[in-house]
TrEMBL record:
Ranges annotated as spanning the membrane: 21-42, 284-312, 333-366, 378-400
ABC3 transporter permease C-terminal domain residues: 292-408
Protein topology in the membrane: Multi-pass membrane protein
Family recorded in the similarity comment: Belongs to the ABC-4 integral membrane protein family.
InterPro entries membership: ABC3_permease_C, MacB_PCD, Macrolide_Exporter_MacB
UniProt name for this protein: Multidrug ABC transporter substrate-binding protein
Keywords: Cell membrane, Membrane, Transmembrane, Transmembrane helix
The organism's place on the tree of life at top rank: Bacteria
UniProt GO cellular component terms: plasma membrane
Native source species: Candidatus Sungbacteria bacterium RIFCSPLOWO2_12_FULL_41_11
Pfam families registered for this protein in UniProt: FtsX (PF02687), MacB_PCD (PF12704)
Upper lineage: Bacteria, Candidatus Sungiibacteriota
């Protein structure tokens, strides 16, 4: 019996039991669809996170207080107050960090806003500089659509002024022009001097939902502390980033009296470092979730093996007749193995289509719900893996039933009732 006739016979066998074939497919369909969905959504999340991090620019360097955490139990290492005004002044000196184009301290925390009876919970970001203007715009690539950022003089004088994100404008002011209006921040009066253009997420800040104030004002009146949550340094060029990182480390170690680098009470993070680390984390999570989704393929494979064993038993007389007219053990083995593989590949194709549809829907819903540009990604490797796993499952779980069918004695098979 030629291979073509084996295909034809296998297809005929599946066609005679349509309901059973469809039910057998479900395990494979669910498994492949789960893998495609997880890998697609995971890739979309990875691209979104990396895009947000890269939004700060490759020349941006973040100095973070506390030692660098080595694991989940070391998160407390971040909660230190090791970055002070002395460190900021040292980093601004050209002789210490010659390739620093801009240096900006950052403080942040949750706040409660109020305007004419309306209240709103959001995040405050204190920034700015005492010697250059518009550094917030340069660092985060965000600019006012109306009004302005606070000036150097307002930073120096700890003025109660604020620039608000677009979402805050909509939530508290509606169609009213917020410029010049008095906004209460944790019960304190602040004058609105600017409204940011819609921007969305940049790094870890959603600037549509952020209140910007001078860092001096934030420290003095809102947070009541002297240390910084970050010091952002912008290198003059991509080529000077590595040198600048080294200069920052040396300067801070001198300030803090540290001679052993392993005792650093700060750590330095470039955008390339952060992108690599988060990219690795998201890839690992995607692999783990894909492995969990793959368990359903195992269940589906066992289901196929059980159904095929039942099919072999029900078709015992058919097997006897085929052998009586000349079919060999190999012909029978090939026929039943092809039935299993055709089932799993068919389920794989349906699963891929379903998985891509679910991925597109999930990307659209997540993008709308979170207010971010969550792109839909078609992972070609997931499609290849899906088809490969489908065929593999068919071969592995179809071999035993097919072998049982091929070993049946034609005489005993013909006597089977």
């Amino acid at each position: 019996m030629k291979l073509f006739y084996s295909f034809k016979t296998a297809a005929g066998g599946l066609g005679r039991n349509k309901s059973r074939s469809v039910l057998t497919l479900l395990g494979i369909v669910i498994g492949i669809a789960s893998i495609i969905t997880v890998m697609s959504v995971g890739e979309g999340a990875k691209n979104l996170i990396l895009g947000q991090i890269q939004g700060l620019g490759s020349k941006t360097i973040a100095v973070i207080p506390g030692r660098q955490p080595r694991g989940p139990t070391d998160i407390a290492a971040l909660l230190l107050d090791s970055l002070k005004e002395k460190d900021l002044n040292s980093l601004r000196k050209r002789e210490n960090v010659p390739y620093a184009a801009d240096v900006m301290p950052v403080v942040f925390g949750p706040i409660r806003l109020a305007y004419e009876g309306e209240t709103y919970q959001t995040t405050m970001l204190g920034g700015g500089s005492t010697d250059t203007n518009d550094i917030l715009g340069k660092v985060f690539d965000v600019y006012p659509e109306k009004g302005r950022f606070f000036s150097v003089e307002e930073v120096n004088s700890k003025a109660s002024v604020a620039t608000i994100g677009d979402k805050i404008r909509r939530e508290l002011f509606g169609f009213t022009d917020p410029l010049g209006k008095i906004l209460k921040v944790n019960g304190l009066n602040f004058r609105v001097v600017g409204v940011l253009a819609p921007k969305g997420q940049v790094s870890f800040f959603n600037f549509d939902d952020t209140l910007l104030v001078p860092y001096t004002t934030a420290q003095q009146y809102i947070l009541g502390r002297k240390h910084f949550d970050r010091i952002i340094v912008v290198a003059k060029s991509d080529e000077t980033v590595e040198t600048t990182v080294g200069d920052i480390a040396v300067t801070l170690r001198i300030n803090h009296g540290i001679t052993d680098p392993s005792k650093d009470d700060f750590f330095i993070q470039t955008q390339a470092d952060l992108a690599d680390r988060l990219g690795t984390v998201t890839s690992i999570l995607t692999i783990l979730l894909t492995s969990v989704a793959g368990i359903s393929l195992l269940v589906g494979g066992i289901g196929i093996m059980n159904i095929m064993l039942v099919s072999v038993t029900e078709r015992t007389r058919e097997i006897g007749l085929r052998k009586a007219i000349g079919a060999t053990n190999r012909n029978i083995l090939t026929q039943f193995l092809l039935e299993a593989v055709m089932l799993t590949i068919g389920g794989g194709v349906i699963g891929i289509i379903l998985g891509l549809s679910l991925s597109f829907s999930a990307s659209f819903i997540l993008g709308q719900y979170l207010g971010v540009d969550w792109g839909f990604t078609i992972p070609l490797n997931a499609i290849i893996i899906g088809l490969g796993l489908s065929a593999f499952v068919g071969i592995v779980f179809g071999t035993y039933p097919a072998r049982q069918a091929s070993l049946k004695s034609p005489i005993e098979a013909l006597r089977y009732e």
